[in-house]
TrEMBL record:
It holds the Pfam family LacI. One of its GO terms (biological process) is regulation of DNA-templated transcription. The gene is rbsR_2. Residues 2-26 form the HTH lacI-type domain. It comes from the Bacteria. One of its GO terms (molecular function) is DNA binding. It comes from Mannheimia haemolytica (Pasteurella haemolytica). This is Ribose operon repressor. Signal peptide: none annotated. InterPro entries: HTH_LacI, Lambda_DNA-bd_dom_sf.
Length: 40
């Protein structure tokens, strides 16, 4: 199973950004969602 660190490294973003995307933080931009989750 991938960790937040793995996802962040793969997407080229910080672990904080990945955490915000996972938790659907409204301050996170659509671009971060696309890069962190592949557009899902």
């Amino acid at each position: 199973m991938a960790t937040i660190k793995d996802v962040a490294k793969y997407a080229g973003v910080s672990t904080t950004t990945v955490s915000h995307v996972i938790n659907k933080n409204p301050l996170c931009s659509r671009g971060h969602y696309k890069s962190s989750l592949g557009g899902y």
